[in-house]
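Help needed: design a sequence for this.
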């Protein structure tokens, strides 16, 4: 077998660098030499617990990583439009293409998805990855692979903005200043929203948002009452849209108080508990539109454009880089510095 190096997770906090079989391209597929992969919160969950929530349980050793970018090195039979040497961002979820969700363009809801780094689906903490040619998207020459790897979390931000129907003139509140909150801010700016308030309870995150993300206001949501936030930033009316990215149950609850009558809320953050409280009377009385956000669909070309536009300082989002051999250290770093870091990236300089 031709081999390649990969970081394989064997159990809780047990990552080993191993020689595994190098993939080759079948019909309609491409092989990408991985150059950068962002570490996602879900990767860290799997690393810590070998599972994520109740739904996703690892059953065998697993290669994590689903935010890759790299260079195409091989194309399979029938591939057109993509050639060896192309620099690309890789979308991680291949779907069936046949069900009602796929056919209607909402393929993120497909029940037959092979999403990189979920149980049974190899991820990208490796030297090479094989994937359908329609899952790779060329990036501009001037874009670094690290910034290109942000296409995945930025896609979540784009989808959250789409579902909250953010548009120019809106007053938008983003709850949570982690990677997804920052990416939602970037997407909203690209959508023409200038009045963005970002709320978090960590001062350093608020500072990062002020310094690098062009948000208009930041607010420590642990220090001000919801009514005070609404009064101070919207003159008492409420925000047109709220995007919840923190996953804190209290933030879910707050979102209904923060939004105006007829406003829209999109929920991205995943709370630890399955059931959280909402003000049902307020949702009804205010005619609030509440939407869940699950991954994204058809967003990569736009994500790449937004990254290239530098609407925020995307380079600053990359806190720290590790080589593939250091994947375990990278995971420990991401786990132990959740609050002080934004994005940790595995790079493959070779
Ligand atoms: Zn992710
Ligand atoms: Zn489908």
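Sure. Designed sequence:
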């Amino acid at each position: 077998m031709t081999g390649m190096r990969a970081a394989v997770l064997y159990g809780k906090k047990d990552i080993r660098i191993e020689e595994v079989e190098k993939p080759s391209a079948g019909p309609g597929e491409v092989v990408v030499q991985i150059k950068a992969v962002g570490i996602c919160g879900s990767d860290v969950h799997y690393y810590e617990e070998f599972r994520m929530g109740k739904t996703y349980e690892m059953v065998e050793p697993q290669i994590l990583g689903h935010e890759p970018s790299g260079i195409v090195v091989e194309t399979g039979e029938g591939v057109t439009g993509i050639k060896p040497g192309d620099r690309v961002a890789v979308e991680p979820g291949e779907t069936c293409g046949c069900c009602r969700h796929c056919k209607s363009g909402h393929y993120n809801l497909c029940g037959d998805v092979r999403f990189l780094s979920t149980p049974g689906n190899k991820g990208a903490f490796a030297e090479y990855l094989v994937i359908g040619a329609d899952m790779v998207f060329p990036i501009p020459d001037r874009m670094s692979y690290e910034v290109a790897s942000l296409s995945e979390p930025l896609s979540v931000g784009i989808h959250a903005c789409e579902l909250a129907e953010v548009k120019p003139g809106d007053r938008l509140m983003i709850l949570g200043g982690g990677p997804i909150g920052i990416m939602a801010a970037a997407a909203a700016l690209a959508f023409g929203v200038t009045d963005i308030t970002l709320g978090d309870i960590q001062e350093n995150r608020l500072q990062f948002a002020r310094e690098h993300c062009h948000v208009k206001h930041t607010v420590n949501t642990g220090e001000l009452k919801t009514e005070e936030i609404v009064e101070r930033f919207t003159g008492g009316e409420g925000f047109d849209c709220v995007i919840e990215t923190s996953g804190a149950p209290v933030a879910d609850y707050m979102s209904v108080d923060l939004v105006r009558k007829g406003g829209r809320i999109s929920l991205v953050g995943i709370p630890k508990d399955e059931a959280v409280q909402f003000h049902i009377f307020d949702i009804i009385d205010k005619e609030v539109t509440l939407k869940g956000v699950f991954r994204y669909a058809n967003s990569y070309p736009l994500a790449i454009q937004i990254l290239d536009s530098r609407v925020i300082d995307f380079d600053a989002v990359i806190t720290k880089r590790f080589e593939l051999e250091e994947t375990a250290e990278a995971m420990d770093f991401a786990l132990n510095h959740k609050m002080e870091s934004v994005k940790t990236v595995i790079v493959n300089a070779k």
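The chain has two domains: 3-149+313-347, 154-292.
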